[in-house]
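Project outcomes to date are best conveyed with an example. Our students and postdoctoral researchers have been running inverse folding experiments weekly, and each run begins with a structure described purely in tokens. The record below, which covers 364 residues, was selected by the lab manager from last quarter's runs and is presented without edits.
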């Protein structure tokens, strides 16, 4: 009788314990570097275990704890229970004639996102996503049509780089956070991911080789200027006239261009760093001489560089790119007016490599 009672009590305790662990369980990919260090110390483990776990997760791209052969089995089981580990599944890969590879990936909750590998002889650049979908609804952007599903966790952002390293068997040298999503709407997770990418013992990608592109979230720009690492900032401008920008980027209506300029000027003053403006020329929308003059005036006094981007056409959209001669005219005029400028080479247009295009194709 007593024996039975003890057994049943033990069952309840064990059961409750498992329930508590499950209720408290949190995906390992949600932690930043310090978070992993904290959970290791809270579990009473020696501190070197944190870097071992992080190395398995991100430098080696481990798919499960069972691969982590230098961790004791009991520790792996404990981690498995408290901090579930899952890796995304590749749903689709498109390879372009120019070697660009675009991936659509799915997380364990069904949320999807995209990433692009842009290999060349001397570097391998990854265009990574910060969210699944995007809430910004920019009129020329395919991701905008999808709407926002959710923010990506730090590890889910890093996974995109680890997966490409594994897939192509070479080191990723550059990262641009220019895929799906608005990175500064997911600021903490994005910065946590960048620090994992940058860490010398993890992916060891130089801070200057990591660029974050924002549609112009002012609070994000302010916070980004307070970060020690020399990550690079890019801002999607696309129009230097208020009424034009309000139309192209409707979620930013109400944000004054002069407020943005003020924030960017402060950014350069604080960091001493140059940032770039992305400007995609769209026929009849933002390509007039008046637009060009507005851009020249806007850049005056800013430590900036203008990147003119060929528009990637979205099927079904009425927005079309300008002729190359218009692009050249803009580049020459900007240069003559002492604005640093370059024309971004378009890659992967035959595989719908532009932001959100693959997911949009899939959802249709
Ligand atoms: N939300 C961030 C980052 C993601 S978009 C931002 O707005 O910057 C990355 C870049 O691709 C942005 O400059 C965006 O304006 C641009 N872009 C989106 N759709 C495009 C298209 N169809 N053709 C060319 N560039 C596009």
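After processing, the design step wrote out the following sequence:
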């Amino acid at each position: 009788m007593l024996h039975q009672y003890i057994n049943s009590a033990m069952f309840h305790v064990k059961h409750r314990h498992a329930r508590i662990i499950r209720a408290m369980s949190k995906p390992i990919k949600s932690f930043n570097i310090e978070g992993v260090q904290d959970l290791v110390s809270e579990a009473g483990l020696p501190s070197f275990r944190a870097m071992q776990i992080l190395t398995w997760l991100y430098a080696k791209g481990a798919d499960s704890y069972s691969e982590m052969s230098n961790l004791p089995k009991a520790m792996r089981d404990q981690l498995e229970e408290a901090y579930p580990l899952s890796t995304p599944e590749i749903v689709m890969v498109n390879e372009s004639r120019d070697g660009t590879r675009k991936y659509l990936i799915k997380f364990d909750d069904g949320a999807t996102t995209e990433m692009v590998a842009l290999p060349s002889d001397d570097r391998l650049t990854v265009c990574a996503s910060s969210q699944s979908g995007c809430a910004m609804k920019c009129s020329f952007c395919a991701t905008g049509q999808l709407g926002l599903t959710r923010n990506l966790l730090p590890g889910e952002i890093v996974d995109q780089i680890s997966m490409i390293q594994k897939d192509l068997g070479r080191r990723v040298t550059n990262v641009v956070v220019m895929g799906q999503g608005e990175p500064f709407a997911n600021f903490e997770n994005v910065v946590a991911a960048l620090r994992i990418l940058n860490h010398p013992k993890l992916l060891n990608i130089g801070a200057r080789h990591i660029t974050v592109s924002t549609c112009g979230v002012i609070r994000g720009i302010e916070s980004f200027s307070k970060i020690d690492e020399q990550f690079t900032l890019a801002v999607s401008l696309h129009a230097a006239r208020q009424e034009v920008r309000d139309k192209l980027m409707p979620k930013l209506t109400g944000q004054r261009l002069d407020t943005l300029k003020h924030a960017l000027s402060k950014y350069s003053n604080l960091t001493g760093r140059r940032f770039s403006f992305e400007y995609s020329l769209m026929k009849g929308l933002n390509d007039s001489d008046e637009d060009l003059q507005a851009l020249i005036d806007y850049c005056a006094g800013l430590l900036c560089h203008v990147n003119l981007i060929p528009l990637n056409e979205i099927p079904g959209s009425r927005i079309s790119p300008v002729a190359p001669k218009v692009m050249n005219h803009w580049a020459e005029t900007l240069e003559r007016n002492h604005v640093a400028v370059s024309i971004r080479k378009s890659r992967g247009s035959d595989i719908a490599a532009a932001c959100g295009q693959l997911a949009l194709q899939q959802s249709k």
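The longest strand covers residues 112-119. Confidence is low (pLDDT under 50) at residues 1-21. The training component of this project remains on track.
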